[in-house]
Every structure is written in C-alpha cells, then in structure tokens.
Write a sequence for this structure.
C-alpha cells in the first residue's frame, strides 16, 4: 500500500490530520512528473494539467476499488491545489527573474484563444481566486478541480458530492465572477 | 454581502438560462424587485458570463521551455545577427528570421539548437564539414552560411532564408496532380545528388526540410538544413528517443534501416536515397510507408525492428486499400492519381 493510499484510507476513517500529509506528497510527485514530461517534449509543446494529475493518480494510488469517489475526491482536491501552486510559483518566478528558457518553465496558455496579447495573467487570476476562496470557498474548490486539475464537470460534481446542476450553475457563477474581477477591476 | 445568499446564485442560474437580454432584464426586474443593489450585481455577473467566452474552460496547461530565447527577446543580437521573428519550431530547435548586419546586410534563417547538446562538439563537427558545405552551389539547396554558439552556450546555424512551406503541404494545398508532384520532386533529387557529389550527406530528409518557395510565381523546391544533422549527430539511441521524443517520432518515418542501427556507422549516401523514397511515397499516397500511427504505437525496440525488417505496402496497394482514406487528412483525394 503506498503512502498516498494509506493516507486516503486514514482520511476516510475520519483522521482529519491525514489530509495535511497528502498535499506535500502529491505536490512532489506532480512537480517531478511535470519536469520529466516537459523535458521529453519538443520546445513550445504543451502538456495538459489534466493528463499530469491523472497520471499522478495512477502512480500514487493503488486502490482496487477505484470507483470510490470519496477518496478520489480527496486526492483530486489535493492534486488541484498542488497544481495551482506549481503554476503560480512558476509564474511568480518567471515574473521576478524575467528569465526565459528555464527547464521547467510553466505558464498559462492563451486561454481564450484570442490575440496573443490577451493572455491571462496567472498571478492576477490567482489574486482573484484567493478572493473567491474567501467569499465563496465552495466555488473556489470547484474552480480548482475544473481548471487546475482539469476534471470534467461530472467528475467535479462527484468529487465535491454535489449535483451536476449545482456544479454547472456554480461553475458558471465562479467563471463570471473571476472574469469580472480580471476585466473590470 | 448580498451576493453571498443562495438566492443570488439561483437567480443568476435562472437568468443565464434565458435566451434574450430583454427576457433576462424582465426576469431580474421581477426577481430582485426589492433589492436594486442585488440586481446590479447579478446583472453584472450575467453580463460577464456572456462575455467570458471560453475563459477558464480549458484546463491549465504546462508549456515546455523555449529552447533559445523568449519571444520578448526578439531583437537581441546573436553574433552579428539580430533576431527579427520566430518562423519555425521543431524538436531540434527554433528557427528565427534574423538580420545580418556585418559584413553584409541581409536576412537569414537562424536555427538555435535545443539545450542539451555539447555546442563545442557540434561546432567542431560543423567546422569539419564547412569547406564541403561551402562547395555546394545548387539552386535547390539553401546555403548554409555560418554556425556558432549563443551566449547561453547553445549551438546555432545560419542558413539562407527560405520563405516556403513543406513540399507535402504545398502539393496538398494546391491539389497538385501526381505528374506535377513528380515534376517538383525531380529537382529535389538533383539537389541531393549535387550534395552527394560534394561528399555531403543530408541525413535528415523529410518534408519539413524540403521547402517549396515561389520564384516568379513558379514553385521551386529548396532543401534546407544541410550539415545540421551531421553536426548535431542525431543518433538513434534510447537517450535521444527519451529526451527528444518529439524529434524522433517526427523523423522516424523517413529513417533508413541502416540509420535505425544503434551504432549508425553504416550511414552513407544511400540513406538519403531511402529517405527520398519515403518522401516520394508520401507525395504520391499521402502517407509514409511506415505510418506515423504504426510507429507511434510501437515500443522503442519494436520501432527499430519495423524500420529494418518490415516490408511496406506498395504505393498502388496503399492507395487501393480502402483503409487508405483513414490515414489523416494528407491522403486527400487530390493525392490520388486522377487518371
């Protein structure tokens, strides 16, 4: 049984402190995985956060009962937070050093696929995200799972234990809210 | 905070489900009749919802590092060359359009090789072949002008600037007949023969290294990247497959059996002929003899085996095979013989 699997089952048995141990483990795995995968790709290629998170799940969690969404939910929540930190750390480092070409430079794509200069500033997005987290923690969790871990709406609803309708509505709400923060400040 | 109430979300959810702005406005009038501030906030959110497009809809992406310079460093000097614009990107490096200021002023293509190669060795190998490269003089060969190392130690090559598109894409985009394709292919063969007579082997012939450029409205093929493959000594090993996966899968289809040997000692002019054959096959059928999908599915050892041992279908068989149409968009009807 891997560490992560053990922690997940501890969480399920009600051990609150176990959740805190989960994040550093998943963070380390995701970082290493990202660096390794990016090194294999041609320059300028992109990797989906989704793919990394799912690969980390396969590698770290060896549970026979994969349909157990409670524990998968915990895993993906931690993975989404880890992925957010990786992306934001890198954006911050890049902003402070203005140094290009580093091995594992990670940045956001042109999300809206509009003009190149219309790229989202990940640091600004994260500031808005922190505000969302303070006001609407449930919606912030949803955004994290959707955007940073790349779960589908259905998977997100399952992971959060909410209905798909609610997930759909909260997603639209959070998206509009964040968009407003970034564009009408 | 009014937006915090569950009603705000419910009203928002109902509002965005309505089709027209007028309907939404009427709905908000009714739903927030008692609370103009709530109405203003929700109205703003609804407006943002429709403006947001696909904002955040695609999950975050991690991007690999640019091999050489950031796009913001365009304009910097590498030796006597000023980077103007990125014009291409491949597994091996990034190609820029650059302006040479000294000793002559002209525009050139500058290819910066990806990090991870020993630039001293690369440049030494390039220097060794430089004289021979300089002897090449053929209208269908892009001249190799210079090589060096950037400040960060990456090797770069300077070549005649070719404004063009890969030969396969040109043929497909312009719906050339098989006969027209052959007419474009013949000068490519002449170019390679010219190089061979000067003792130069290209080693990496593939569509993206055979560009079509227009002279007086007439398509003229230009073989680019002579000397680059030799200098960067692309060997097929586990390591290169691992660290340069993108490159290897891009090139494997054109690789000759002797190049698929781990030691790659037996590479001579015939390897180029083999790759030319693959290119011709692709021009006529729309697919390479060993298809991309086939090689992508295979494990490393298996790939070598396939390249060395497998007998590909004849082009005519490939075309009459009903499955041919499935292989990507390149096997357009235009790629089929029209007679």
């Amino acid at each position: 049984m891997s560490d992560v699997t053990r922690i997940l089952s501890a969480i399920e048995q009600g051990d609150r402190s176990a959740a805190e141990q989960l994040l550093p483990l998943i963070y380390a795995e995701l970082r290493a995985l990202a660096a390794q995968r990016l090194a294999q790709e041609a320059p300028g290629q992109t990797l989906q956060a989704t793919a990394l998170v799912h690969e980390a799940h396969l590698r770290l969690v060896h549970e026979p009962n994969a349909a157990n969404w409670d524990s998968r939910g915990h895993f993906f929540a931690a993975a989404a937070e880890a992925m957010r930190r990786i992306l934001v750390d890198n954006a911050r480092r890049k902003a402070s050093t203005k140094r290009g070409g580093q091995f594992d430079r990670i940045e956001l794509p042109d999300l809206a696929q509009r003009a190149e200069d219309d790229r989202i500033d990940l640091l600004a997005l994260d500031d808005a995200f922190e505000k969302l987290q303070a006001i609407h923690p449930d919606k912030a969790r949803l955004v994290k799972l959707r955007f940073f871990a790349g779960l589908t709406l259905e998977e997100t609803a399952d992971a959060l234990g909410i209905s798909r309708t609610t997930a759909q509505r909260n997603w639209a709400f959070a998206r509009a809210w964040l968009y407003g923060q970034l564009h009408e400040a | 905070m009014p937006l915090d109430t569950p009603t705000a979300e419910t009203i928002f959810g109902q509002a965005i489900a309505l089709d027209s702005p007028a309907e939404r406005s009427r709905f908000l009038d009714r739903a927030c009749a008692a609370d103009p501030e709530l109405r203003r906030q929700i109205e703003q959110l609804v407006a943002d919802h429709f403006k947001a497009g696909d904002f955040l809809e695609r999950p975050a992406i991690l991007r690999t590092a640019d091999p050489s310079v950031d796009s913001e460093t365009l304009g910097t000097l590498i030796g006597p060359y000023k980077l103007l614009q990125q014009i291409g990107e491949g597994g091996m490096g990034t190609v820029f359009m650059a302006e040479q200021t000294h000793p002559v002023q002209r525009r050139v293509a500058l290819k910066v090789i990806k990090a991870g190669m020993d630039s001293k060795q690369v440049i030494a190998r390039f220097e060794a072949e430089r004289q021979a490269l300089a002897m090449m003089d053929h209208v269908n060969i892009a001249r190799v002008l210079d090589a060096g190392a950037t400040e960060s130690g990456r090797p770069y090559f300077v070549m005649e600037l070719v404004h063009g598109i890969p030969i396969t894409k040109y043929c497909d985009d312009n719906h050339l007949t098989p006969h027209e394709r052959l007419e474009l292919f013949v000068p490519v063969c002449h170019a390679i023969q010219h190089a061979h007579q000067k003792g130069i082997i290209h080693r990496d012939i593939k569509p993206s290294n055979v560009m079509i450029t227009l002279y007086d409205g007439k398509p003229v093929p230009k073989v680019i990247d002579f000397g680059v493959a030799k200098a960067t000594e692309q060997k097929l090993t586990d390591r290169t497959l691992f660290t340069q996966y993108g490159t290897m899968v891009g090139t494997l289809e054109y690789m000759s059996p002797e190049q698929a040997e781990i030691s790659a000692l037996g590479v001579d002019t015939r390897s180029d002929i083999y790759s030319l054959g693959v290119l011709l096959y692709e021009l006529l059928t729309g697919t390479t003899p060993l298809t991309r999908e086939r090689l992508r599915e295979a494990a490393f050892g298996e790939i070598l085996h396939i390249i060395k041992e497998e007998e590909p279908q004849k082009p005519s068989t490939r075309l009459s095979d009903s499955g041919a149409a499935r292989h990507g968009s390149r096997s357009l009807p235009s790629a089929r013989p029209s007679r």
Q: What stands out?
A: The CA atoms of residues 293 and 327 of chain B lie 9 Å apart. Chain B touches chain A through 50 residues (CB under 8 Å).
